[in-house]
Amino acid sequence: MCKLIRKDFSVGRYYIMGMAVIIPLITTIAIMAMISDYGKIFAGILLLILIGLCTVSGFLFVALDSDCDREALFVSLPLKRSSLVIARYTSSFLLATGGLGLALLIVLIADTLFGIDDPILTLMLSRSGILGLISMILILLSYGLPFFFKYSSGSSMFKAVLFPVSLALAFQLLYQVVLLLK
């Protein structure tokens, strides 16, 4: 299985390099916008951005395999379908966790540079906060990836995965905006 995950990463190395640039860039832009506009980082909004970016990167990694005919390479290997699916889950989770690690490194650097004293940000950067973020990404990926494998594209995929997740994120974002305006 490790060889299959390694092959998955070697086939998608350009995507991984792109995500290694895009995730810290978007995180830096969000942090700088919050600091320049409000003078502090709003941890709730930053959490939404981090979880959204990392989860979407995991979904796109799997989607890229099926769209670029890389799936044909893996299906042609003499392996069971279940081991292929487990390897895809694992590689998607590892990619999302790596993206989260990069984003948290940027948050830690911003916290060190600007001396932000926010208890939520301190909790987010603690061991239990990081484990909570990893657990949230694991839950979102484990909820969404079975639907992705069942309905690889189309309106069924949107109804099954994207709509509930986007609705939950929209309500959380609305809640954060209401808290900002108080």
Provide structural commentary.
The chain is mostly helical and 182 residues long. The chain is built from eight helices and no strands. The longest helix has 34 residues, at 81-114. The radius of gyration is 18 Å and the shape is elongated. The mean pLDDT is 75.
Secondary structure topology:
Layout: H1 2-11, H2 13-38, H3 43-67, H4 70-75, H5 81-114, H6 119-124, H7 127-150, H8 155-181
Helix pairs in contact: 1-5, 2-3, 2-5, 3-5, 3-7, 3-8, 5-7, 7-8
Which short descriptors sum up this protein?
single chain, 182 residues, mainly alpha, 8 helices, 87% helix, 0% strand
Q: What is the total tally of β strands?
A: 0
Give Rg in angstroms. 18 Å
Unreliable spans are none
- Percent of residues in β-strands: under 5%
Main beta sheet: none
The total count of helices amounts to 8
Order of helices and strands: HHHHHHHH
What does the overall shape look like? elongated
Instruction: Assign the structural class, choosing from mainly alpha, mainly beta, alpha/beta, alpha+beta, or little secondary structure.
Output: mainly alpha
**If you average the pLDDT, what whole number results?**
75
**What portion of residues is helical?**
over 70%
Short description:
By secondary structure, this protein is mainly alpha-helical. Helix content is 87%, strand content 0%.
